[in-house]
Q: What sequence folds into this?
């Protein structure tokens, strides 16, 4: 299972940290990705991280690169997405999901999805 949490209302320029709690599988065997979907828009790949022990590979979508940071402490089953300098266009429901194989932001590669958490960026 995957469960995203930590969403809320934040002002433009603010920061927020989302958590993806995983259970029921060996996280080291998978890639964990964050995606988002805004009303009326297609789902967008935000970031992903390799779960393999000692592997620090990550990837980011162009719209969040340099502002968002994905991380996981060694041995932990939680993947964090720390978001800085948030903009109104970051408003969306954020989901975490797992994929088997290489880093990718293609949503069709992710077979298991958790429930999302809403992030609203507004003054």
A:
């Amino acid at each position: 299972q995957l469960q995203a949490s930590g969403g809320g209302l934040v002002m433009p320029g603010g920061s927020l940290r989302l958590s993806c709690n995983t259970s029921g599988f060996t996280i080291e065997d998978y890639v964990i990705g964050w995606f988002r979907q805004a009303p009326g828009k297609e789902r967008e790949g935000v970031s992903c991280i390799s779960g393999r022990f000692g592997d620090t590979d990550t990837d980011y979508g162009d719209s969040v690169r340099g502002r968002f940071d994905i991380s996981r402490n060694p041995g932990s089953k939680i993947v964090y997405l720390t978001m800085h300098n948030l903009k109104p266009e970051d408003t969306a429901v954020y989901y975490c999901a797992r994929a088997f194989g290489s880093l990718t932001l293609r949503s069709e590669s992710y077979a298991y999805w958790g429930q999302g958490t809403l992030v609203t960026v507004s003054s």
